[in-house]
Specification:
The complex is a heterodimer of chains A (370) and B (278). By secondary structure, chain A is of the alpha+beta class. In chain A, 39% of the residues lie in helices and 13% in strands. Chain B has 278 residues and is of the alpha/beta class. Chain B has seven helices and twelve strands. The longest helix of chain B has 16 residues, at 12-27. Classes of the chains: A alpha+beta (370), B alpha/beta (278).
């Protein structure tokens, strides 16, 4: 006698216990501390903060630990926490020209005010496994900061240098008194403003943006980019409390900023000039900032009178599919039971097959009569 | 109840925003109201829309039933029921008749619902025209103009190709003679239950950020043609557990020789009937 499957509750409890065990791994190995994660897996923490859109290293490290190192799962954990937080204030626009830079490069000019600073980059490492790192006693030698990293040396944005000559399209400020758009508080609708697109991209999945940015380079919406400038460093976040009426700094965050300089051939009414794509990401994430800048520029196609033909230029396509928390949930919901719908399909397919069989049979009979 | 969180998880401002969307949905039956869906502690696609709707309408005196595939003990139903037991401390039940609020995925209970009950559907894709037109900007226009030709063409093409309308679930309906609506992936077997249902029907799509509603006693018509009227699924055999011949059946494979049996998908209705027979 068949008894309907029961025991969902017990199964879930057991699964949670197994997960806790698997998370801990072998008890012979010391447990990871949050400090270890945020100090030694800093780029993982940065990615979780960026796509979780919450700047909190400790919580991001906790999320990574809880998610067993699955960064998208960690991003989800952080988002589900973030959504419960009250919105206390809107910050003033970050002044990235005043960034305390620890990396700054331009691929457009050989040298420029403030200089090129490589900083701690993977770029010129040879990707050879360093077996010495397998040992746990590693104390790298100290490095003196480069003279150009002196906070007193001004480091203007490359784009502002081009702007002096009128060679680059000025960034038209959207109405500064208007409330800042926030796709976490208002449902997305199209067409979206550029600031909303940038918010979406800043939270968007790095892999998705990387692939889209790459696609523009391979001809699906090419926008002839130059990495005008990439800078990584610390900036102050300021808010204007209503009772004070002037800005005060509430903290410092590390961000990566990328300004792509893109060709624009001009039109009947506009002289040829350069245009920009912009990327800004929490923490150190040059790859994402660059990809974001490529996609931002691609999404400006219709604004600049370019034909929208490629996925990266299509605002609805990009914005509706960039969020990895949404995407991972919906893709993985396929593992939930669907037996009711599947039963509907089974009934349908069986009936269709039976009908086909019947009509083939009657055709055969007709033929044999002839 | 969980410490550090508001009653039923969502903060009151969010609930107010969602209730406004629900009221708008009730006022315009079948119209998809955009709302600022929140990230929930459950994944998108796993009922976040339904959970937000439930969290916004639930009160401390409500009695909650949660079903998935018609059953109360499927893992995701257990998980959502626990979520509300934990965050709202409400009484839960498996009995359709005892529940004031029922959250469902993929089924409508077999027992007819009454006035005063609320049925909350979890909706993956709220847009019935999505498979014909992927763009939201376009489908919103089509709804605004009641331009539903593509849907009828699709149904017609089914008939031309298969001799019948080949949708067995999420079968499109026309609500109150105006909006074409996705009933969520319930089997078409359940569609007739939606028509003039005495209970309030609310639909939440979290990832897609849409809420819609069918107020009590509203007409819900499954789309069809005069010469190809709407039909529901039928089985040759009754439920092997309770003997019902008028319910939706699940097929269970019982061995590796292809032996199978058919049992009610609505576990509460099945058990009640078995008790009644005993």
């Amino acid at each position: 006698m068949y008894v309907a499957v029961k025991g969902g509750e017990a199964a879930i409890d057991a699964a949670h216990k197994l997960l806790a065990l698997a998370r801990r791994g072998s008890a012979d190995v010391a447990e990871l501390s949050l400090d270890q994660i945020s100090e030694q897996l800093g780029l993982a923490v940065d990615r979780v903060m960026a796509e979780g859109s919450l700047y909190d290293k400790r919580l991001a490290a906790l999320a990574i630990k809880q998610a067993r190192g699955d960064l998208v799962e960690a991003i989800f954990l952080l988002r589900a926490f973030r959504t419960t937080l009250p919105r206390l204030a809107e910050s003033e626009p970050l002044n990235t020209a005043n960034m305390a830079v620890h990396r700054r490069i331009s691929a457009a000019f050989k040298d420029l005010p403030g200089g090129q600073i490589l900083g701690p980059t993977f770029d010129y490492t040879h990707r050879l496994l360093d077996f010495a790192l397998a040992e746990t006693e590693n104390q790298p030698e100290a490095v003196a900061p480069p003279a150009s990293a002196d906070a007193n040396v001004p480091m203007p944005h490359v784009a502002s240098l081009l702007h002096q000559e009128g060679l680059i399209q000025p960034e038209a400020a959207e109405d500064e008194t208007a409330p800042v758009a926030d796709l976490t508080r208002d449902p997305l609708s199209f067409p979206a403003s550029r600031s909303l697109r940038l918010q979406n991209l800043a939270r968007g999945d790095e892999g998705f943006l990387l692939a889209l940015g790459y696609s523009t380079q391979r001809g699906f919406g090419n926008n002839h980019p130059f990495a005008g400038e990439i800078r990584i460093g610390a900036v102050e976040v300021e808010i204007v409390p209503e009772e004070l009426g002037f800005p005060i700094a509430i903290g410092t965050i590390t961000i990566t900023e990328c300004e792509m300089i893109n060709q624009f051939k001009g039109s009947k009414d506009v002289a040829p000039m350069f245009t920009r794509g912009y990327g800004l990401v929490f923490g150190e994430s040059e790859r994402k900032a660059m990809a974001m800048a490529l996609v931002d520029r691609a999404l400006r196609a219709s604004e600049l009178g370019e034909e929208v033909i490629a996925p990266a230029q299509d605002e609805e396509f990009v914005m509706m599919h960039s969020d990895n928390v949404e995407a991972m949930g919906f893709v993985q919901h396929l593992k939930l039971p669907h037996y009711v719908d599947f039963q509907g399909e089974l009934v349908m397919v069986r009936e269709l097959r039976a009908e086909r069989e019947k009509s083939l049979q009657s055709q055969k009979e007709e033929k044999s009569h002839v | 109840m969980s410490k550090g969180y508001n009653f039923a998880y969502l903060d009151e401002q969010t609930k107010r925003m969602i209730r406004r969307a629900i009221l708008k949905g009730v006022a315009i039956p079948g119209y998809q109201v955009p709302f600022a869906s929140r990230e929930m502690p459950l994944p998108y696609g796993w009922g976040t829309g339904g959970i937000q709707v439930t969290a916004s309408v639930i009160g401390p005196n409500d009695v909650l039933k949660v079903i998935d595939q018609g059953a109360d003990d499927t893992t995701n139903a257990v998980s959502i029921r626990r979520f509300f037991a934990r965050t709202a401390g409400v009484k839960t039940t498996e009995r359709t008749s005892e529940a004031s609020l029922i959250q469902t995925r993929h089924r409508i209970p077999e027992q007819p619902l009454k006035e005063g009950q609320i049925l909350v559907y979890q909706v993956p894709i709220p847009e019935p025209l999505r498979w014909m037109e992927p763009r939201e900007t376009e489908t919103r226009k089509m709804h605004a103009l009641a331009e539903y030709g593509v849907m009828h063409v699709k149904l017609y093409e089914d008939i031309a190709r298969f001799g019948r309308i080949a949708s067995s679930y999420n079968y499109p309906v026309l609500v109150h003679g105006r909006y074409v609506m996705a009933p969520s992936p319930i089997p078409k077997f359940d569609n007739p239950k939606m028509d003039r249902m005495p209970a309030l029907q609310l639909f939440g799509a979290g990832r897609e950020k849409r809420i819609y509603a069918v107020p009590p006693y509203t007409s819900v018509k499954s789309l069809d043609f005069e010469d190809h009227p709407f039909e529901v699924q039928r089985w040759d055999k009754p439920c092997e557990l309770c003997g019902a011949s008028d319910t939706y059946l699940d097929e269970v494979i019982t061995d590796d020789q292809g032996a199978r049996m058919f049992v009610c998908s609505d576990s509460d209705a099945c058990q009640e009937r078995q008790k009644g027979a005993a």
